[in-house]
Amino acid sequence: MVLVRTVDGKTVKIEWQLSSPFDPNMEDADDAEPAPDSTDFSVTIEEPKGSGVVFYCSTQSGQDHRFVIGNLTRFSGPEQKESASAYNGPEFEDLDDKLQEAFDEYLAEMGMNDDVCDFIDAS
Description:
This protein is 22% helix and 30% strand. It is α+β, with helices and mostly antiparallel strands and 123 residues long.
């Protein structure tokens, strides 16, 4: 599923896979594992000229911060954005704490919030 909006001339695209409410391979509901507590999603923020950044994230339960960033990658154009061999960047937790906070604030400015995470998890 994809949510798209424009913020300050930048295209913000949030993408994730819908989860099936029913698994036909499950024979006995008593043995069913509970649904995962998180959903993986990506946030792509693209400038009008084609450069941008992709954040690879997961939702998390709780009242405070509803998502975590796993890693991110920057691209300079459509070819690099779609490249399978593109470098996905460092693990987010390995970045300086102030840089992590700045990226979190940037995503909040682009519209990433608890309501969006609730919508993603409900899908």
